[in-house]
Amino acid sequence: MNLKQEIGFIIRHPLTGCSFRNWIKLLVDNGGVNKKYILKVLYISLASCLGIPLRIIERVKFDENLEKLKIEESPIFILGHWRTGTTYIQNLISQDPSLGYISTSLASAPEMFLANQKLWNFILNNSLPKVRPMDNVELSSLLPQEEEYAIGNISPYSFYHSWCFQKNMSKYFHNFVLFDKVSEETKLQWKNCYIKILKKATLHMDKKRLIIKNPANTARVKLLLEMFPTAKFIHIYRNPYIVYTSTKHLYEKLLPSFALQEIPEKEINENILKFYQQLMHKYFTDKSLIPKENLIEIKYEDFVGHELVQLQKIYQHLNLPNFENAEENFQKYIDAHSNYETNKYLFDEETITKVYDAWKFTIDKWQYSPPQSSL
C-alpha cells in the first residue's frame, strides 16, 4: 500500500465522526489496537475532540425538538444479507419523493450533522471516493446509507465495530446482530440509540416515512417490531454462491480501511460462512412475527431487469401509496444505471462444495444451482 492510499484510509475511517467518550470506550473494551494503526488512532482521537463543540451546538439546537418528535409512520425496512442487492433496492425506492432515508452525512456524523449540514457535506464530498471500492456503486454525502454506521459513531453497540476491532468480530456479531449474549438493559440502550438516529433522520427528511436498509437488521426483526409493530419489511435474497464470493470481496476491499486490529484471512472466511448461517436462521425463525401483509420477499435475479414490475408488486403487497407519482423517478434512476455491471467471480470446486455444505438450507430452499467450476 502506498502513502497516498494509507492517508486516504485514515481520513475516510468510519469512526471519524465518533464521540470522544464512545471512542475511548471502544479502545478500552477491545484492548487497544495494533501498533501499525497508530496514525488512525491519533487521527480519530483528534477528530473526535475537535467535534466536541459541534456536538454541543447540536444538542443545544435540536435536543428539545427531538425529544418532542414522534415518528408518525413506522419505517420500511429492507432486509437481506450483505451483497444481496439491498443497496440497489434502497437507492431505487428512495427516488419516491414521499419517502425519506438516513443520508451518508447523517450516518457519518450523527451527533453533529443537523447543526452543521453544509460543513459535513463539504468534508465528505471532498474525502469520500466517488464509488464504493467493492462494487463501484456511487457514493456521496446525500445518498442513502446504513444506520449501522451512525449507531457505531454514538455507541459501542454496532456490528461494524467488528470490522475495526477484528479480534472481537464474533463477539460483536453475537451481541449486536443476534443479541443473544446481552442483557435486557443493553437491548434497551440499543433501542434508545436507534430511535434517536431515526428521529434525527425524520427531522432531516421533513418528517417523511423512512426507508431503511441495513443487512444486520435481518436478524433483528423481533427488536424492530418491539419498537415499530406496524413496520413494513422487504427481504431480498440472492444466489448464495454469489453472496459468499461477493462478501469475501467486500471484506478484502473494506477491512484494510476499517482495521485497527487484524485476524487471519482464514478466520474471516470462516466467519462469513458462520455469520450467514446464523443471520438467516434467525430471520427464518422470527419472520413469522411479521404480519403477512407487512412482509414481501424478493429474489434478486427476478428484481434486476424487471425493476418497475417488482416495485409495483412491492407497493401493492405492502399497501404503500404513491407508486404512480414516483414511477417516472424510478424509471429515470433505472435508465441512468442501465449500464452498470456487477462483479464477475470465478469458482473452484472446493469453494462450491464449501458453500453448499454450509449454506445448503438456503440453496435448497430457494432452488439455486451450483455455478460451473472455472478453475
Defining traits:
disordered N terminus; 5-stranded parallel sheet; 56% helix; Rossmann fold; mainly alpha; 6% strand; 375 residues
CATH topology: Rossmann fold
Order of helices and strands: HHHHEHEHHHHHHEHEHHEHHHH
Average residue pLDDT = 92
Beta-strand fraction estimate: 5-15%
SS content category: mainly alpha
Report the sheet with the most strands, covering strand number, pairing sense and barrel closure: 5 strands, parallel
Characterize the structure shown.
The chain is mostly helical and 375 residues long. It has one domain: Rossmann fold, CATH 3.40.50.300. 56% of the residues lie in helices and 6% in strands. It has 18 helices and five strands. The protein has a five-stranded parallel beta sheet with strand order 2-3-1-4-5, sandwiched between helices. Helix 8 packs across helix 11, helix 14 packs parallel to helix 18 and helix 16 (307-317) runs antiparallel to helix 17. It is globular, with a radius of gyration of 20 Å.
